From TrEMBL:
Residues 40-59 bind DNA. One of its GO terms (biological process) is negative regulation of DNA-templated transcription. Residues 17-77 form the HTH tetR-type domain. SUPFAM superfamilies: Homeodomain-like, Tetracyclin repressor-like, C-terminal domain. Residues 228-264 are annotated as: Disordered. This is TetR family transcriptional regulator.
Length: 264
């Protein structure tokens, strides 16, 4: 459990020995102990063995420090997440999604900075855009239309991020209150009143749980749909629908409006 408002005090540093990189590195160390939510400039100063004014010299407020931490976190995230290869797009996209999820689950600070914290610096936003651009480019190279490539990767991102955030929020609640349970754990399953759910639970199926089984099932569904898109099945359906709409539109335009005969 993250500690509330405590930090290990280091020996006093020599004057002038502090730099922004040391501050950011120390902030990550402290956040591992007390969480991003409890991180503060005074506690960070104590952790680094410097006066808090030394930190304010480089970062005027906590928001600027969090931006710098997010920049570093995104660089780490981009480095750890494998690229998508056009010639083997399905399996490499699967590995990309799996590694993305494992990276966030294995590093709560990374998750809090990138997924839960809403603000991003311009540098971080550009880095995220460049990474997404590379994935889209690989999918387009694999044969996807630009629209299908964007929609496919968007679904993968939403699936991964959504399940990771649900798990992280559940973990954060447990940090605050060890007795608390996740929403999907509060569902009462009784063999008499909910026999189907009871049978499913006995086989390891849990409705709404962000677990491995539900993650892989959802990912398979996204990849299966993407495979159909690439095979042309959905393209044919879209062309047929577009043709029908064009025909209806042309018929409407050429049809003459009815006129009423005046009665005397």
């Amino acid at each position: 459990m993250a500690k509330q408002g405590t930090a290990t005090k280091r020996p006093r540093r020599e004057r002038g020995s502090l730099n922004p990189e040391d501050i950011v590195a120390g902030a990550f160390e402290l956040a591992e102990e007390i969480s991003i939510d409890n991180l503060s400039m005074p506690l960070l100063g104590k952790h680094l063995g410097v006066g808090v004014t030394s930190i304010y010299w480089y970062f005027r407020k906590k928001e600027e420090l969090l931006n710098a931490m997010t920049d570093r976190a995104l660089r780490q995230y981009a480095f750890e997440t494998p690229f998508i290869e056009a010639e083997d797009w399905r399996e490499t996209l699967r590995k990309h999604a799996q590694t993305m999820r494992q990276t966030f689950l294995g590093n709560p600070i990374l998750c809090d900075l990138i997924l839960i914290r809403s603000a991003l610096s311009e540098k971080a936003a550009r880095l995220g855009g460049k990474q997404t651009e590379r994935v889209i480019a690989s999918l387009v190279e694999a044969g996807f239309s630009l629209e299908d490539a964007v929609e496919t990767y968007s679904r993968v991102q939403l699936h991964v991020h959504g399940l990771v955030v649900l798990q992280r929020l559940s973990d954060k609640n447990r940090e605050l209150s060890p007795e608390s349970t996740a929403y999907y754990e509060n569902v009462i399953i009784d063999p008499e009143t909910t026999p189907l759910l009871a049978q499913a639970a006995a086989k390891g199926y849990h409705s709404g749980a962000p677990d491995d089984r539900n993650f892989e099932h959802g990912l398979d569904s996204i990849l299966d749909h993407a495979t159909r898109l690439l095979s042309g099945e959905n393209h044919t359906q879209k062309k047929s629908t577009t043709a029908r709409r064009a025909t209806r539109s042309a018929t409407t335009k050429t049809s003459k409006p009815r006129t009423r005969t005046a009665t005397k």
